[in-house]
Amino acid sequence: MNEDKSPLHPAWRQWLAENLALGVSAEDVQQTLVQAGVDPALAREEITAVGQHPYFKAALQVARHFGWLESLMDVYSELRARDGGRQLEVREGISPEEFFRRYFLGHRPVVLRGLMADWPAMKRWSLPYFRERFGTVEVEVMVGRDANPEHAAEQDRHRARMPFSDFLSQLETAGETNDIYMVPRNDNWGREGLAPLRDDLRAPAGLIDPSLRPEQLTLLLGPAGTVTPLHHDNMNILLGQVMGRKHVRLVPSFERHRVYPHRGTFSHVDAAEPDLAAHPLFAEATVLEVVLEPGDMVFLPVGWWHWVKALDVSASVTFHHFLVPGGNTHLDAPF
């Protein structure tokens, strides 16, 4: 068949080739096409044509390579499960040496307690405090998120600037919503008016660079109901919960093939209510979860997938410049 004159829609032809390359049987592919209204004879003809195409044969070689990697990651996942990998550890009083050896270099998440006890922010931070001290400072926030399912990946479409006091008024009256949020990708920390907020923080001794320069940390502030969809970061992150509670779910980096990656660092899976008919492999994913209370910190290793939902009006701070021997580790993904 001349592929340029094929009556099958290009989207279906791409779907057909992708699924055959991933190992789905020709019978199952044909059944899906027929159920979608494709003539059975055309479906068989397209399947045959795809199998003979040199581009598909090249794609099949790539798919086999990735299949081998996924099989290796499955083995690694099984071994980690036997080594306590199905539980999210909670530690208090840990030394920097043990943190870096077991968690940072061991690529394990962990909840750390007791590291924020000396933060002035733990006593000071509240919406009235922000209003009194910083109400006139202009801040950047994300708005109109509910109308766009891709808001997390398309943040530039939702940026808005307003006086901090206006944003705080919205937080006070919003109730539970995902529509407004001060997310990390902004320049708020670098604004001179908010600089005193950094004085309310303390770098965890021996773990984080104590200089706390604006580019080394981020501020997240929003109402109950804000959701950061399942995604991963390309660096190690230490998140400290100052106000309110956050529900966190994590999936290991080495189970990437079970979370259906989307737009590089995001996932197709709604980790709050997974659609296992559409994403069946997620049923095999290792999902660790915790509710962070004020004063809790969670270490998110580079590449680990995480979903976060605020249960209350919430303020969090993230750090990403660790005092690790040998330097920080980053993921330089090609896509």
Describe the structure.
A hairpin with a 3-residue loop joins strand 9 (261-262) and strand 10 (266-267). 30% of the residues are buried. Strands 1-2-12-7-14-5 form a six-stranded mixed beta sheet, with no helix packed on it. A four-stranded antiparallel beta sheet has the order 6-13-8-11, with no helix packed on it. Strands 3-4 form a two-stranded antiparallel sheet. Helix 1 (10-21) crosses helix 4, helix 2 (26-35) packs across helix 3 (40-52) and helix 7 packs antiparallel against helix 8 (164-173). The longest helix is centred in the first third of the chain and has 32 residues, at 54-85. It contains nine helices and 14 strands. It has two domains: 10-74, no CATH class; 90-137 and 187-319, Cupin (Jelly Rolls). The mean pLDDT is 91. By secondary structure, it is an alpha+beta fold. Helix content is 30%, strand content 21%. This is Cupin-like domain-containing protein. Residues 172-335 form the JmjC domain. It comes from Corallococcus exiguus.
Q: What is the topological layout?
A:
Blueprint: H1 10-21, H2 26-35, H3 40-52, H4 54-85, E1 89-92, H5 96-104, E2 110-113, H6 121-124, H7 127-134, E3 138-142, E4 159-163, H8 164-173, H9 195-198, E5 217-222, E6 227-232, E7 237-243, E8 246-251, E9 261-262, E10 266-267, E11 288-292, E12 296-300, E13 305-310, E14 314-319
Parallel strand pairs: 1-2
Antiparallel strand pairs: 2-12, 3-4, 5-14, 6-13, 7-12, 7-14, 8-11, 8-13, 9-10
Helix pairs in contact: 1-3, 1-4, 2-3, 7-8
